[in-house]
Design brief:
By secondary structure, the protein is mainly alpha-helical. It has 11 helices and 3 strands, in the order ααααβαααααββαα. The protein has one domain. It has helices spanning about 25-45, 50-90, 95-100, 105-130, 140-180, 180-195, 200-205, 210-225, 230-245, 275-290, 295-300; strands at about 135, 250, 260-265. The chain has a 3-stranded mixed sheet with strand order 1-3-2. Keywords: Membrane, Transmembrane, Transmembrane helix. InterPro entries: Rce1/LyrA-like_dom. This is CAAX prenyl protease 2/Lysostaphin resistance protein A-like domain-containing protein.
């Protein structure tokens, strides 16, 4: 039976136990990470750099698998660095950075991973069956097996960094400092979305795509606050990125891999771009809320 926590029993924001003016410690990794993002964006704008062209050049020179590694490896390394920083500088346990439960609930991670995997694979197969002209079969056994091995190791590290940094580290820091779960949710969700502004798909589709990225940030933030831990967010994010790089990619996104399928359809900017945020994401929240018996929505999200 799924457990049910009350606010008195569990509060993810206060798990950090920040005492004695330790909030300044949050500034160091925040300035470093956002500083790197800012410098990268400034250089791209100043020199009018076409990121899609850079990715294509890398693929021509070192292949898709090594281009994938060069794209994802930095965030994978950051995952290990943020966990070490929290443990040795904040003197905070990884468990308390992850969840309010006595130990990390891996069943939540695996359930979320399985749910998103089934959903994404099903939607892709349905779309492939109804719109086969929009896809090109790209499967080659050896390159795919190489991608599979790399992705299974690197994707969980990359997505875990983003979850530990945004939904755990910053959410606990901002929420604890301002004593506001709502402010922590809004800030981390918006910043998470804007972090993707330099992605090549933004240049292809337009800034309207930020609605999806910011909406995803809100989804993951709501899951974290309602469930009092990031286990569900960890599973969701890992499944979303892993299935994407393995199953279907395009020639104009950040990930251009040796996936099974390549989408050759021109990207749409119609109303369907909002379907994930306003239709599918609420469905995910409904499923999770029923399984884990979430309650006190107003207190957990707005106070």
């Amino acid at each position: 039976m799924a457990e049910k926590y009350s606010l008195k029993e569990a509060n993810f924001i206060t798990e950090a136990q920040n005492k004695k003016g330790s909030y300044w410690k949050y500034l160091i990794p925040s300035f470093l990470f956002f500083g790197l993002i800012g410098i990268n964006l400034a250089v791209m704008i100043a020199f009018d750099i076409d990121q899609s062209a850079i990715i294509k050049k890398q693929i021509d020179e070192i292949g898709r698998n090594m281009t994938f590694v060069s794209t994802i490896a930095p965030l994978s390394i950051f995952c290990l660095l943020i966990l070490l920083y929290v443990k040795f500088v904040h003197k905070q346990s990884i468990r308390s950075l992850t969840t309010t439960r006595p130990k990390i609930d891996w069943s939540r991670v695996f359930f979320s991973f399985a749910l998103i995997t089934v959903f994404l694979v099903s939607l892709t197969l349905i779309d492939y069956a109804t719109n086969p002209a929009d896809y090109k079969l790209n499967f080659e056994l050896i390159p795919f097996l190489g991608l599979l091995g790399l992705a299974v190791v690197l994707i969980p590290l990359q997505t875990s960094f983003e979850e530990y940094f945004f939904r755990a580290y910053l959410m606990q820091g901002i929420g604890g400092f301002f004593k506001s779960r709502l402010l922590a949710l809004i800030f981390t969700s918006v910043i998470f979305g804007l972090m993707h502004i330099a992605n090549p798909e933004i240049g292809k589709i337009g800034y309207v795509l930020l609605v999806t990225y910011i909406g995803t940030g809100f989804l993951l933030g709501i899951m974290t606050l309602m469930d009092e831990g990031i286990e569900l967010a960890l599973g969701f994010h890992a499944a979303n990125n892993l299935i994407t790089v393995l199953l279907v990619t395009t020639d104009w996104t950040a990930f251009q891999t040796n996936s099974i399928l390549i989408s050759v359809a021109e990207p749409s900017v119609g109303l369907e771009i909002f379907i994930p945020v306003f239709v599918i994401y609420p469905l995910y929240l409904f499923i999770f809320s029923k399984k884990y018996k979430w309650s006190n929505w107003k207190e957990k999200l707005l106070r």
